[in-house]
Amino acid sequence: MAIFKLSLFCFLSLVFVKCSSPSANNSPEENLKTNKSMEIKDYTPSYISLHKEGVLKKRGKELWDRMESCDLCPRNCGVNRLEGERGFCKANSDLEVASATPHYGEEPELVGRGGSGTIFFTNCALLCVFCINSEISQGGAGRKYSIEDLADMMIALQKRGCHNINFVTPTHYSPHIVLALDKAVEKGLKVPTVYNTCGWEKPDVLKYLDGIIDIYLTDFKYGCNEKAGKYSIGAYDYVDYAQKAHLEIQRQVGTAKKDQKTGLMQKGLMIRHLVMPNNVACSKEVMEWIAENLPKNTYINIMSQYTPVFKAPNYPDISRRITREEYREAIKSAEEAGLTNIQTQGYR
Prior knowledge:
By secondary structure, the chain is α/β, with parallel strands linked by helices. It has helices spanning 28-35, 47-52, 55-65, 108-111, 134-137, 147-159, 174-186, 203-206, 225-231, 238-253, 283-293, 324-337; strands at residues 95-103, 116-121, 143-145, 165-168, 193-197, 215-219, 257-258, 265-274, 299-303, 342-343.
């Protein structure tokens, strides 16, 4: 999930509004010209060859068919989204998008000079009570678009100089994404794709994305199921699914490595962990599992910006910001576990 809350004024009607700029002194045209020097020249996403082989269309159709008794996420609610029924995520088969814009609040390795081309999808199945994007994830903010529209959004973001296409909260729209990618390749899409997920994923669904997604930007929200079920309503199996999902993702894309010339990420797993007050996220357990089951140099961004928004004030343990000491403890846990690629934010 993306770190920063989007303004709802960034809604699109296939006209892409730039919410922020890498330089206040440059026009969009000047920024786009500058961005060209940052493009990755020697990386060709494998989704291009999968398109030529007809794999994208085939997998997209198979994912689409799973919406008839939807089991795309761990809720396994079984509703017929193809007939208009809405599941826990509040989505049916209509594609709903809140915004598509160059975004500069993501990790530096994704942003570069041109920004990460984020497409924020409406709705979410995890139902976090502290969600910073609750208007979009649980409030239904967004508009309906076609598969063709989604492909055009990708192309427009690439033309704006974005270094990647960043699918935010994508799980329930994975069929739409794969089918739209198939069309976008025909239109010239060639930048890396980012699957920006809460980490609560089914490995069998992720396998459809093998070779299609270049970078997985995952949240590893909790290290204990009890807290997960309380603060992400009913997700008492979060840890089990997140662990299996990260193993599958590691198999697909490996450890994240950035291009030495540009500093941009090309492929791999990037993990985020949001430190929460009163150790609600069970941070030590998260760090220890990563260190024991993934490479020690796995990219892990330990985030400090927890804010008690949405329904969080109703839950005493998470109704405040974190302390400096709580953040330091999370970093210490990562270091003691032997992790070597730790990204931090403030409070040091």
